[in-house]
Write a structure and sequence with these properties.
Elements (H helix, E strand, L loop, with lengths): L3 E7 L3 H12 L4 E8 L6 H14 L7 E3 L13 H4 L21 H11 L5 E5 L4 H9 L7 E7 L15 H5 L1 H8 L5 E4 L1 H4 L6 H8 L4 H21 L9 H8 L4 E6 L1 E3 L10 E3 L14 E7 L1 H13 L3
Parallel strand pairs: 1-2, 1-4, 2-3, 4-5, 5-6, 6-10
Antiparallel strand pairs: 7-10, 8-9
Bound molecules: alpha-D-ribofuranose and calcium ion (CA).
The site of alpha-D-ribofuranose has 16 residues, from α1 and α6.
Length: 317
Amino acid sequence: MTKTPIIIDCDPGQDDAVMLMMAFAKRDQLDILGICTVAGNVSIDKTTRNARIICEICGQTDIPVYAGYAAPLKRRLFTADEVHGEEGMNGVKVYEPEMPVQEKHAVNFIVDILREKEDGEVTLIVTGPMTNIAAAFSQAPGIKKKVKEIILMGGALRMGGNVTPSAEFNIFVDPEAAHIVYKSGVKTVTIGLDVTHQVLASNARLARIKAIGNKVADTACEILGPYSFFDSEKYGTDGGPLHDPCTIAYLLDPSLFKTKFCNIEVECNSELTVGHTAVDFWEGMDPKERPKNTHWAYEVDDKGVYRLLEECLATFS
Ligand code: RIB
Ligand code: CA
Protein backbone atom coordinates (compact mmCIF):
# COMPACT_ATOMS: atom_id res chain seq x y z
CA MET A 1 0.00 0.00 0.00
CA THR A 2 1.45 3.42 -0.88
CA LYS A 3 1.99 5.60 2.16
CA THR A 4 0.33 9.00 2.54
CA PRO A 5 3.02 11.71 2.62
CA ILE A 6 2.33 14.18 5.43
CA ILE A 7 3.96 17.20 7.06
CA ILE A 8 3.01 17.83 10.70
CA ASP A 9 2.99 21.44 11.97
CA CYS A 10 2.39 21.64 15.73
CA ASP A 11 2.97 23.45 19.03
CA PRO A 12 3.57 20.67 21.62
CA GLY A 13 1.67 21.05 23.89
CA GLN A 14 0.21 18.03 25.60
CA ASP A 15 -2.46 17.12 23.06
CA ASP A 16 -0.01 17.75 20.20
CA ALA A 17 2.23 15.18 21.91
CA VAL A 18 -0.51 12.52 21.85
CA MET A 19 -1.26 13.46 18.22
CA LEU A 20 2.41 12.77 17.37
CA MET A 21 2.22 9.37 19.11
CA MET A 22 -0.77 8.43 16.92
CA ALA A 23 1.03 9.50 13.74
CA PHE A 24 4.19 7.60 14.76
CA ALA A 25 2.15 4.47 15.35
CA LYS A 26 0.94 4.46 11.75
CA ARG A 27 4.18 4.95 9.82
CA ASP A 28 3.24 1.84 7.84
CA GLN A 29 0.52 4.06 6.31
CA LEU A 30 2.01 7.54 6.81
CA ASP A 31 5.21 8.88 5.28
CA ILE A 32 6.04 11.62 7.80
CA LEU A 33 8.22 13.97 5.74
CA GLY A 34 8.98 16.20 8.71
CA ILE A 35 7.71 17.75 11.92
CA CYS A 36 7.53 21.56 12.00
CA THR A 37 7.11 23.44 15.23
CA VAL A 38 5.56 26.84 15.87
CA ALA A 39 5.16 29.06 18.92
CA GLY A 40 1.74 28.63 20.46
CA ASN A 41 1.04 26.70 23.63
CA VAL A 42 4.54 27.69 24.75
CA SER A 43 7.57 29.40 23.14
CA ILE A 44 9.21 28.07 19.98
CA ASP A 45 12.22 26.81 21.94
CA LYS A 46 9.95 24.73 24.17
CA THR A 47 7.64 23.44 21.42
CA THR A 48 10.72 22.40 19.41
CA ARG A 49 12.31 20.71 22.43
CA ASN A 50 9.02 18.97 23.31
CA ALA A 51 8.54 17.62 19.79
CA ARG A 52 11.99 16.01 19.95
CA ILE A 53 11.30 14.60 23.44
CA ILE A 54 8.22 12.84 22.08
CA CYS A 55 10.24 11.58 19.10
CA GLU A 56 12.82 10.13 21.52
CA ILE A 57 10.24 8.58 23.86
CA CYS A 58 8.58 6.94 20.83
CA GLY A 59 11.86 5.90 19.20
CA GLN A 60 11.23 8.02 16.11
CA THR A 61 14.43 10.09 16.02
CA ASP A 62 14.81 9.51 12.26
CA ILE A 63 12.03 12.03 11.58
CA PRO A 64 13.51 15.52 11.02
CA VAL A 65 12.25 18.34 13.26
CA TYR A 66 12.30 21.92 11.95
CA ALA A 67 11.74 24.99 14.12
CA GLY A 68 9.38 27.62 12.73
CA TYR A 69 8.01 30.99 13.70
CA ALA A 70 8.60 32.30 17.22
CA ALA A 71 5.61 34.64 17.03
CA PRO A 72 2.42 35.17 15.02
CA LEU A 73 2.60 37.05 11.70
CA LYS A 74 1.43 40.38 13.11
CA ARG A 75 0.79 39.99 16.81
CA ARG A 76 2.60 39.32 20.06
CA LEU A 77 2.65 35.69 21.08
CA PHE A 78 -0.14 34.57 23.43
CA THR A 79 0.62 31.22 25.11
CA ALA A 80 -1.39 28.60 27.01
CA ASP A 81 1.07 27.57 29.69
CA GLU A 82 -1.71 27.72 32.27
CA VAL A 83 -3.16 24.67 30.49
CA HIS A 84 -0.07 22.79 29.34
CA GLY A 85 2.35 23.84 32.10
CA GLU A 86 5.29 26.24 31.99
CA GLU A 87 7.29 23.73 29.92
CA GLY A 88 4.26 22.84 27.80
CA MET A 89 4.40 19.21 28.82
CA ASN A 90 2.76 18.76 32.22
CA GLY A 91 3.10 15.09 33.14
CA VAL A 92 6.44 14.63 31.38
CA LYS A 93 9.83 15.36 32.97
CA VAL A 94 11.35 17.54 30.25
CA TYR A 95 15.06 17.33 29.33
CA GLU A 96 17.36 18.52 26.53
CA PRO A 97 16.98 15.88 23.80
CA GLU A 98 19.97 14.28 22.02
CA MET A 99 18.07 14.52 18.75
CA PRO A 100 19.09 17.64 16.78
CA VAL A 101 16.87 20.38 15.37
CA GLN A 102 17.37 20.77 11.63
CA GLU A 103 19.28 23.87 10.51
CA LYS A 104 16.66 24.80 7.93
CA HIS A 105 13.74 26.99 9.07
CA ALA A 106 10.40 25.15 9.04
CA VAL A 107 8.94 27.49 6.42
CA ASN A 108 11.86 26.87 4.05
CA PHE A 109 11.50 23.12 4.65
CA ILE A 110 7.80 23.27 3.78
CA VAL A 111 8.52 25.28 0.60
CA ASP A 112 11.45 23.11 -0.50
CA ILE A 113 9.84 19.72 0.13
CA LEU A 114 6.53 20.69 -1.50
CA ARG A 115 8.40 21.94 -4.60
CA GLU A 116 9.80 18.41 -4.98
CA LYS A 117 6.37 16.76 -4.82
CA GLU A 118 3.62 16.17 -7.38
CA ASP A 119 0.44 18.28 -7.45
CA GLY A 120 -2.00 17.31 -4.70
CA GLU A 121 0.44 14.84 -3.14
CA VAL A 122 1.06 16.03 0.42
CA THR A 123 -1.35 16.29 3.38
CA LEU A 124 -0.63 18.95 6.01
CA ILE A 125 -1.58 18.16 9.62
CA VAL A 126 -1.78 21.49 11.49
CA THR A 127 -2.44 21.55 15.24
CA GLY A 128 -1.15 24.94 16.33
CA PRO A 129 -1.40 28.54 15.09
CA MET A 130 -1.14 28.48 11.28
CA THR A 131 1.78 30.91 11.15
CA ASN A 132 4.26 28.61 9.34
CA ILE A 133 1.72 27.48 6.75
CA ALA A 134 0.56 31.01 5.96
CA ALA A 135 4.17 32.21 5.70
CA ALA A 136 5.05 29.34 3.33
CA PHE A 137 2.03 30.05 1.08
CA SER A 138 2.92 33.76 1.01
CA GLN A 139 6.62 33.08 0.33
CA ALA A 140 5.97 30.56 -2.47
CA PRO A 141 2.37 30.60 -3.72
CA GLY A 142 3.22 27.91 -6.26
CA ILE A 143 3.46 25.25 -3.54
CA LYS A 144 -0.27 25.47 -2.76
CA LYS A 145 -1.14 23.14 -5.65
CA LYS A 146 1.18 20.50 -4.15
CA VAL A 147 -1.06 20.20 -1.06
CA LYS A 148 -3.77 17.53 -1.16
CA GLU A 149 -5.54 18.89 1.93
CA ILE A 150 -4.89 20.61 5.24
CA ILE A 151 -6.41 18.81 8.24
CA LEU A 152 -6.30 21.41 10.99
CA MET A 153 -7.45 21.66 14.58
CA GLY A 154 -9.03 25.05 15.21
CA GLY A 155 -12.12 27.19 15.40
CA ALA A 156 -15.49 26.89 17.08
CA LEU A 157 -19.11 27.43 16.14
CA ARG A 158 -21.65 26.06 18.62
CA MET A 159 -19.08 25.42 21.37
CA GLY A 160 -17.99 29.05 21.69
CA GLY A 161 -14.35 29.96 22.27
CA ASN A 162 -11.85 28.52 24.76
CA VAL A 163 -9.65 31.64 25.00
CA THR A 164 -12.34 34.33 24.71
CA PRO A 165 -16.10 33.84 24.45
CA SER A 166 -15.65 34.04 20.66
CA ALA A 167 -12.30 32.47 19.80
CA GLU A 168 -10.52 29.12 19.89
CA PHE A 169 -6.81 29.23 20.83
CA ASN A 170 -5.08 28.28 17.53
CA ILE A 171 -7.08 30.82 15.53
CA PHE A 172 -6.95 33.47 18.31
CA VAL A 173 -3.13 33.37 18.48
CA ASP A 174 -2.70 34.08 14.76
CA PRO A 175 -5.97 35.09 13.07
CA GLU A 176 -4.15 36.68 10.11
CA ALA A 177 -2.43 33.36 9.37
CA ALA A 178 -5.74 31.51 9.56
CA HIS A 179 -7.28 34.07 7.19
CA ILE A 180 -4.47 33.52 4.66
CA VAL A 181 -4.89 29.74 4.82
CA TYR A 182 -8.68 29.86 4.44
CA LYS A 183 -8.35 32.26 1.47
CA SER A 184 -5.60 30.18 -0.15
CA GLY A 185 -7.87 27.96 -2.19
CA VAL A 186 -6.25 24.88 -0.64
CA LYS A 187 -8.70 22.21 0.60
CA THR A 188 -9.09 22.43 4.38
CA VAL A 189 -10.78 20.13 6.89
CA THR A 190 -11.46 22.03 10.11
CA ILE A 191 -11.66 19.98 13.30
CA GLY A 192 -12.97 22.52 15.79
CA LEU A 193 -14.08 22.60 19.40
CA ASP A 194 -17.58 21.53 18.35
CA VAL A 195 -16.24 17.99 17.84
CA THR A 196 -13.14 17.88 20.03
CA HIS A 197 -15.29 18.60 23.09
CA GLN A 198 -17.19 15.39 22.30
CA VAL A 199 -13.95 13.39 22.62
CA LEU A 200 -13.37 13.53 26.38
CA ALA A 201 -10.40 11.85 28.09
CA SER A 202 -12.57 10.33 30.80
CA ASN A 203 -11.14 8.43 33.75
CA ALA A 204 -12.41 5.15 32.29
CA ARG A 205 -10.63 5.86 29.00
CA LEU A 206 -7.42 6.82 30.80
CA ALA A 207 -7.61 3.54 32.74
CA ARG A 208 -7.86 1.61 29.45
CA ILE A 209 -4.82 3.46 28.09
CA LYS A 210 -2.93 2.77 31.31
CA ALA A 211 -3.73 -0.94 30.96
CA ILE A 212 -1.91 -1.06 27.61
CA GLY A 213 1.34 -1.18 29.57
CA ASN A 214 4.08 0.26 27.40
CA LYS A 215 6.25 3.37 27.79
CA VAL A 216 4.44 5.42 25.15
CA ALA A 217 0.94 4.60 26.45
CA ASP A 218 2.14 5.35 29.99
CA THR A 219 3.46 8.71 28.79
CA ALA A 220 0.14 9.45 27.07
CA CYS A 221 -1.58 8.69 30.36
CA GLU A 222 0.79 10.88 32.33
CA ILE A 223 0.06 13.70 29.90
CA LEU A 224 -3.71 13.27 29.60
CA GLY A 225 -4.26 13.15 33.36
CA PRO A 226 -3.11 16.69 34.23
CA TYR A 227 -4.16 17.95 30.79
CA SER A 228 -7.65 16.70 31.46
CA PHE A 229 -7.78 18.15 34.94
CA PHE A 230 -7.73 21.77 33.74
CA ASP A 231 -10.67 21.38 31.36
CA SER A 232 -12.64 18.94 33.54
CA GLU A 233 -12.65 21.65 36.21
CA LYS A 234 -13.50 24.37 33.71
CA TYR A 235 -16.30 22.52 31.89
CA GLY A 236 -17.44 20.23 34.72
CA THR A 237 -16.93 17.15 32.54
CA ASP A 238 -15.47 13.69 33.14
CA GLY A 239 -12.22 14.38 31.34
CA GLY A 240 -10.93 17.09 29.06
CA PRO A 241 -11.41 17.39 25.27
CA LEU A 242 -8.85 15.60 23.11
CA HIS A 243 -8.17 18.25 20.47
CA ASP A 244 -5.12 17.55 18.29
CA PRO A 245 -5.27 13.74 18.07
CA CYS A 246 -8.59 14.19 16.24
CA THR A 247 -6.66 15.41 13.18
CA ILE A 248 -4.79 12.12 12.87
CA ALA A 249 -7.98 10.20 13.65
CA TYR A 250 -9.63 11.98 10.72
CA LEU A 251 -6.65 11.29 8.46
CA LEU A 252 -6.68 7.57 9.34
CA ASP A 253 -10.47 7.15 9.31
CA PRO A 254 -12.53 10.09 7.99
CA SER A 255 -15.71 8.04 8.59
CA LEU A 256 -15.31 8.80 12.30
CA PHE A 257 -16.39 12.39 11.55
CA LYS A 258 -19.26 14.11 9.78
CA THR A 259 -18.25 17.25 7.88
CA LYS A 260 -20.11 19.87 5.86
CA PHE A 261 -18.52 21.95 3.10
CA CYS A 262 -19.23 25.56 4.01
CA ASN A 263 -17.77 29.04 4.25
CA ILE A 264 -15.55 30.00 7.16
CA GLU A 265 -14.24 33.51 7.80
CA VAL A 266 -11.88 34.68 10.53
CA GLU A 267 -12.37 37.92 12.47
CA CYS A 268 -9.06 39.81 12.42
CA ASN A 269 -10.08 43.32 13.48
CA SER A 270 -12.59 43.45 16.31
CA GLU A 271 -11.04 43.81 19.77
CA LEU A 272 -13.98 41.91 21.25
CA THR A 273 -14.18 38.96 18.83
CA VAL A 274 -10.74 38.68 17.21
CA GLY A 275 -10.05 35.06 16.22
CA HIS A 276 -13.75 34.22 15.91
CA THR A 277 -14.52 31.67 13.17
CA ALA A 278 -17.76 32.66 11.44
CA VAL A 279 -18.91 29.33 9.97
CA ASP A 280 -21.83 29.67 7.53
CA PHE A 281 -23.13 26.20 8.39
CA TRP A 282 -26.72 27.00 7.28
CA GLU A 283 -25.53 28.62 4.04
CA GLY A 284 -27.25 31.91 4.65
CA MET A 285 -24.62 34.05 2.99
CA ASP A 286 -24.23 34.94 -0.70
CA PRO A 287 -21.87 32.26 -2.08
CA LYS A 288 -20.43 34.81 -4.47
CA GLU A 289 -19.22 36.91 -1.53
CA ARG A 290 -18.53 34.05 0.87
CA PRO A 291 -17.63 30.94 -1.15
CA LYS A 292 -17.38 27.60 0.62
CA ASN A 293 -13.80 27.01 1.72
CA THR A 294 -13.65 24.36 4.46
CA HIS A 295 -15.04 20.96 5.37
CA TRP A 296 -16.33 21.78 8.86
CA ALA A 297 -16.50 18.80 11.28
CA TYR A 298 -19.78 18.84 13.20
CA GLU A 299 -20.16 15.26 14.52
CA VAL A 300 -17.70 12.63 15.74
CA ASP A 301 -17.76 9.00 16.81
CA ASP A 302 -15.84 9.60 20.03
CA LYS A 303 -15.77 5.91 20.94
CA GLY A 304 -14.21 5.22 17.56
CA VAL A 305 -11.55 7.88 18.10
CA TYR A 306 -10.55 6.32 21.42
CA ARG A 307 -10.56 2.81 19.90
CA LEU A 308 -8.14 4.14 17.28
CA LEU A 309 -6.01 5.93 19.89
CA GLU A 310 -5.74 2.76 21.97
CA GLU A 311 -4.88 0.75 18.83
CA CYS A 312 -2.12 3.24 18.02
CA LEU A 313 -0.67 3.29 21.52
CA ALA A 314 -0.70 -0.52 21.68
CA THR A 315 1.60 -0.70 18.65
CA PHE A 316 4.49 0.49 20.85
CA SER A 317 4.32 -2.66 23.00
O1 RIB B 1 -7.82 25.03 21.28
C1 RIB B 1 -7.07 23.85 21.34
C2 RIB B 1 -5.81 23.97 20.58
O2 RIB B 1 -4.98 24.97 21.16
C3 RIB B 1 -4.96 22.68 20.61
O3 RIB B 1 -4.22 22.59 19.42
C4 RIB B 1 -4.04 22.91 21.77
O4 RIB B 1 -2.80 22.20 21.64
C5 RIB B 1 -3.78 24.38 21.66
O5 RIB B 1 -2.74 24.56 20.72
CA1 CA C 1 -1.80 22.32 19.52
